[in-house]
Amino acid sequence: MLRILESIPVGLLELEASQLHCLLDGPTLIHLQGRRSRPLFVSVLLHGNETSGWDALRRVLLQYHDRELPRALSLLIGNVDAAREAKRHLKHQLDFNRVWNGGESTAHKAMAFVVEQMRRREVAFSIDIHNNTGHNPHYACVNSLDERYLQLARLFSRNIVYFLQPDNVQSMAFAKLCPAVTVECGRVASGSGADHAAAFVQAVLNLSDLPRHPIAAHDIDVFHTVATVKVAPDCRFTFDGEDYDLRFGSDLDRLNFAEVAAGTLLATRRQGCDKPLIVTDEAGEEATNTYFQFDNERILFREQTIPVMITQDTEVIRQDCLCYLMERYPWQSR
After folding, report:
1. Selected residue with higher pLDDT from 111 and 242
2. 268-296 in b/e burial notation, b at 16+ Cβ within 10 A?
3. Which of 162, 246, 285, 310 could, after both became Cys, cross-link 276 (CB 3.0–4.6 A)?
4. CA distance 333 to 150
5. What is the DSSP secondary-structure string of 173-209?
6. Fold of 3-213
């Protein structure tokens, strides 16, 4: 399933994400040499419809087509089959960003091989590049509060999300090897995500090391993900229609990164629709009634919280989740 290359195939950088299948027959790991031998690892297109990462790496690598990279670079190009169809993943596939914690599938084994390859190469930094399908600011995610990880994340955004679930993502696997970050680059259609990601990758390629001075508390905003919100599999939902079990507002994603007060309306439900939402906390325990109050047909936030990654893409909601809930993390440099 996984192809390993030591150079960029001729013509690859001229291809859009949807065209990569013409040269690549599946996930591909490309190792490129640079002046500093410990590589930067970058993964793109783990979700085939999130193309800013590939667009960013094309721009960066085209700048070095006739000169040496400042640091070795290992690039994982993920789900080219899903990218062809502009899908997160195809129906017969696993989610390529949920297969990094071991397992017996071909995808699990391929990603375990990638991690082992990078361990042997003494990877210096890891970046996983994604997009959102709802309105969100650009932000970075970490799985460790080690200051090196926060320093890396801060190079991308002052908004930093610390999470431990899901625990089968790329950044979680690489956090055991080196400072690792996931960067969320907004909507693909905005165009700004590729520019931002390219500038970030370029900056990290040129790093000799991460800054060693403490981060001032006022320089970053750290959030902690405390719960995942999913729509029940048998629940029909809509953002603007009449025929529904559960109806959300058409501008629900305006709540992303907002301090939502207790009592704020999330959705309305049809009478008889008893369990439209499934909420799990960081420990994986059911926590729906901890975070939401069911007041006849209204579903209200039970306590103040900060949603993130609210999406109105029905396919993404079915494949992944409606959103995550966060709290501010009282971080200060140790």
Report:
1. 111
2. bbeeebeebbbbbbeeeeebbeebbebee
3. 246
4. 10
5. HHTTTS-EEEEE---GGGSHHHHHHHHHHHHHHT-SS
6. Aminopeptidase (3.40.630)
The CA distance from 252 to 314, in Å, is 13
Distance CA 26, CA 71 (A): 26
Annotated domain spans of the chain:
3-213, 225-328
Instruction: Check pLDDT > 60 for residue 9.
Output: yes
Lay out the sheet containing 246-248: strands in order across.
237-238, 246-248, 265-269, 298-301, 292-295
pLDDT of residue 276: 95
Distance from C-alpha of 323 to C-alpha of 248, rounded to nearest angstrom: 13
First to last CA, the chain: 43
* CA pair distance 138, 197, nearest whole angstrom: 10
Q: What pLDDT is stored for residue 48 in this prediction?
A: 98
Q: Hey, is 141 helix, strand or coil?
A: strand
Query: Residues 203, 168, 42, CA angle at the centre, nearest 5°?
Result: 20
Q: Which two tokens stand for residue 139?
A: 């932000």
Q: Cα-Cα-Cα-Cα dihedral of 19, 22, 23, 29, to 10°?
A: 60
Average pLDDT over residues 248-264: 95
Output the pLDDT for position 333.
60
